[in-house]
TrEMBL record:
Stretches assigned to the Oxidoreductase molybdopterin-binding domain: 288-419
CDD domains named among the record's database cross-references: SO_family_Moco
Name this polypeptide is given: Membrane protein
InterPro entries attached to this UniProt entry: Mopterin_OxRdtase_euk, OxRdtase_Mopterin-bd_dom, OxRdtase_Mopterin-bd_sf
Residue intervals passing through the bilayer: 36-62, 100-120, 141-160, 172-190
An example Gene Ontology molecular-function term: oxidoreductase activity
Domain of life: Bacteria
Pfam families: Oxidored_molyb (PF00174)
Keyword entries, A-Z: Membrane, Transmembrane, Transmembrane helix
Length: 422
């Protein structure tokens, strides 16, 4: 009687297992190893930390705890512990923050993909957990890989395609970022000491990432790193220009708001929503028809464009900066100070304000601004830009412009302003 498997069956089983991802022999690249993975991990450690912090700052810039109309994540609970009143100085603050956030995120894509490629054998390691520490590492790795892919994919879709991912970008990206970063911190705490040791060693040690049966090398590790770095530099060079005007914007070949400026003349700078997209009816915005309704402590005031032109006009040089990462240089705006409009309805000390637009489609038809934003002398209800009347696409007959605020809070086609407690 034969006890145990037949020798031929055992050999066939072994060969079959070698052809599956669960066998170390399946992963034959000679490039994988602890030094390569550690180097990529250290780069991501710094880059993802900056991404997370700039993402939190971007969210704070919307002042989500000011008013429900600004809050796209109303169930955030303790995740909003850090929120603060967004400042107006320096006036380029949001432009810098979001430019770094989006440009760095796109630049890190080759590094992230290379890192995921380098550790993919670990996802198939058997047994699933050899100890509690190993189980924690595996869980953090799964959350890290899934969270990284989710955050980078949703971010790129928002930037490149005006967001086509199912659901709302704001809550998905916000909550996903917290889950991802929690896994990232746990994984970094577990692996950073080993990663630093790997980088200090002159020779590659045996590791579960090193193939027991490596294939013949077709490229060196230095060449692979050069390929990853070159890919990142290419993405940087073809994206970063969307944060500048003039010739540099033409270099942003992979950015939706790169390339040539839209048209010529004083209004030839980037926009996100056209008047047609927002559903603006030209019959509503004519000088004889349009009225701005201002509500406050002493009642309601209705102002036509001619009435606004009789008020003191002021100028400010401010950029437009979008959550999608693109921005303009400073444009020269002229109009009525928001704090002067607050004074018309009884506020010597400017309060918060709720601004409502004529737009019928698109997010942020209503947006709230904090008192410090209203009080800033550069915060305007703009009637002119770069010496000419606003074009329909730039918000004619009147739009808000506030230093350091995200573009969507600079409401266009303004129809109604309510000063006071929101």
């Amino acid at each position: 009687m034969v006890h145990g498997p037949l020798p031929g069956v055992a050999r066939a089983y072994g060969r079959g297992m070698a052809r599956t991802p669960f066998s170390p022999a399946f992963w034959r690249s000679p490039l994988r190893g602890p030094r390569l993975t550690s180097l990529l991990g250290v780069v991501l450690l710094g880059g993802i930390t900056v991404l997370f912090l700039t993402g939190l700052l971007s969210y704070a810039a919307y002042n989500p705890d000011l008013s429900p109309v600004n809050d796209k994540t109303p169930d955030k609970g303790i995740l909003g512990f850090y929120l603060f009143s967004w400042p107006t100085d320096p006036h380029w603050l949001y432009r810098l923050n979001q430019g770094v956030h989006v440009t760095l995120g796109i630049t890190l894509i080759p590094v992230l993909l290379a890192k995921l490629w380098s550790v993919v054998p670990k996802l198939f390691t058997l047994p699933p957990a050899r100890s509690l520490a190993h189980a924690l590492e595996r869980v953090s790795l799964l959350l890290l890989v899934g969270g990284a892919l989710f955050e980078f994919v949703t971010g790129v879709l928002n930037v490149q395609l005006d967001y086509v991912f199912p659901g709302s970008f704001y809550p998905l990206h916000f909550y996903g970022a917290w889950v991802f970063f929690a896994a990232f911190v746990a994984h970094a705490a577990l692996k950073t000491p080993a990663a630093l040791r790997n980088l200090r060693q002159l020779r590659e040690e045996k590791d579960e990432l090193v193939s027991p049966e490596p294939a013949e090398a077709t490229v060196s590790r230095r060449g692979a790193l050069g390929l990853v770095g070159g890919g990142s530099l290419l993405l940087l060079a073809t994206t970063a220009g969307q944060n500048f005007d003039g010739p540099l914007r033409r270099t942003a070949l992979l950015a939706p708001h790169g390339g040539a400026e839209p048209g010529t003349g004083p209004g030839a700078f980037q926009i996100n929503k056209t008047a047609a997209y927002a559903g603006i009816d030209a019959a509503e915005t004519g000088d004889q028809v349009w009225r701005l309704v201002v509500v406050g402590r002493t009642g309601t005031v209705r102002l036509g464009r001619a009435d606004l032109l009789r008020l003191p006009l002021h100028s400010a040089a401010l950029p437009i900066a979008c959550v999608e990462g693109w921005s303009t240089s400073d444009q020269w705006w002229r109009g009525v100070r928001l704090r002067d409009l607050a004074a018309l309805v009884g506020y010597d000390d400017p309060p918060d304000v709720l601004v409502e637009s004529l737009q019928r489609r698109g997010a942020f038809r209503r947006a709230a601004l904090r008192a410090n934003q209203v009080a800033d002398p550069r915060s305007l209800l703009a009637l002119f830009v770069n010496g000419e009347e606003l074009t329909p696409d730039h918000g004619h007959p009147a739009r808000v412009i506030v230093p350091a605020a995200p573009g969507v809070l600079n409401t266009k086609w303004v129809a109604h302003m309510t000063f006071g407690d929101l």
